[in-house]
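Retro notes
What went well: the complex prediction finally ran end to end.
Inputs used:
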Amino acid sequence: MGQKGFFTDTTVCIGCKACEVACKQWNQLPSDGYTFTGNSYDNTQMLSATTWRHVAFIERPRPITQGVDKATNWLMMSDVCKHCANPGCLEACPTGALIRNEFDDVYLQPDICNGCGYCVPSCPFGVVAMNENDGRAFKCTLCYDRQKDGMEPACAKACPTDSIIFGDLDELHERARKRVGELHERGESNAYLYGVDEDTSVGNLNAFFLLTDRPSTYNLPEKPKLPQNNISEGFLTGFAAAALLTLATAFSLWSRKK
Amino acid sequence: MSEHNGHQGSGRGGIKMLSPDSGGPREARGGLAGEQNTYYDLPLVKRAHWRWEIVTYFFLGGTAGGAYLAATLADLFGSREQDKQLIRLGRYIALVGMILSPIMLIKDLGRPARFLHMLRILKFRSVMSMGTWALTMFGVLSGLTASHQMAQDGLLNWLPAKFIPRLLKALPIKLIESIGSIFGLFVAMYTGVLLAATAIPLWGRSRRILGPLFLTSGLSTGLAAISLFLSPQRKQQASLERLETAENIAATVELGLIAALIPTLGPLGKPLFKGKIGRLFTSGTIGSGLILPLLIRLLWHLSGRKPSAATGISASLLTLAGGYILRHAWIHAGRASAADPDAVHYYNEHEWKGKQ
């Protein structure tokens, strides 16, 4: 079966948002309302329980070629659940609703989720969210249902420039590295891969990206931390405090008279 | 057009322009050079949805654990004769806390009817999973202890099945309450670690302090709940005196832990110590919840006279209110922390550097 994932190459994204629409349509997600944010063409703003693909737009002036004063260069990036190798959401889930499926993707089983909401603050990328009307948490499924029928995810299918490519992780890595090499040769030395060969506690991302600016520009964490790594320290001091306070209280309540 | 960068509303630093020769953002990312950007100042992580139900549960769970521990220790090391009321109160307070706690938790769920799904698995990497099981165990054991107490108090004599009160009275209560206390301590403590094991900067950074802090606060409020009902009763002076010692120790430890937060958090502590929540936390918990009761007890102690019932009640109520406000402040400050992308970058950066 192999590990399946996404390679999102932001250098060929044209910001058409076909991925957002296709995702909404396939998963029958409701609209998020009618807001004009004024933040370039991004009126969606972030991933949510009802938005599982979100296109980010950053306009910036940038010297591109010699002799040209200033041109505006656009950064467009289709954000999605990262399907991490070490997912904070999955480790946090107390019901076992979040699992790793046979395609190695992180899947939230909607028939098990009871809406405790603990996965939401546990994601270092701020992906998974609660649907207030429904009561459960939701996120990108990497079109698990389509994959089971041998189809590629809706967003990858809809993307007109193949900015979003779905496939075997190994093949995607190879393709991505080649692409970065090509870009470097052409002088675009800012290109790099985000989510490949990562040394963070979150590990590699099954849905990885080719970016051309630092991650924080795209609202991505630069060195994401797996929140569950905080547990051992937390309990260590907690148990020590428990022991000491028990002793102190026992000492206080001790009475010679029985 | 060229003046308009896509960085509206932030007004700090703008976007770092990268020259094609810089080697790319990977270098900048590795050394985390310079100030990080934000995406229109939009939040990077997402806040927990928890509202008053979870604040109340944190408070009830901690108080129940603290009260149960006090009753247990008094039963094991105190005076069986003098501390009868103390033990009784501690066990009943724990019972009430453990009846109300699941109600709060189930009410908070998005799908309350599925609350039993919490018991499908036991996952050590999920603090909530461990907490659910500890809560269940503590509920059973504190329920047994309270039932034993009710049988002792003759409250179950109306039952037609006479063997039930007899059976309850015969339970090995010292064993049950000893094991129960361990679970009770866990219940009081784990909610702090629950917060710390998330991506919220304020909570994550406080990971060494939150467990002990919530535990100490639970002990404080548990003891205060007991002394609240003990103060107006006659002939409880001996118990109250020893209880007071325990309360003073807990309050002092709690103050120390809160003080330790300031250097630990640095600028990440802003949502907790500044603004509306900061004022509430400082005056409600630190001021009137901890310092004031300590002062009251100290002044009475120096005067040489025994504190009046009214004084005892006031000090207890202040402590209880302070404990509730502490939980409220932490949850709401966490929301503000989650909404701040700069805080997330600061937190991640420092955590990464700490690893090197």
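What we learned: Chain B has one domain: 52-333.
What to try next: split runs per interface for comparison.
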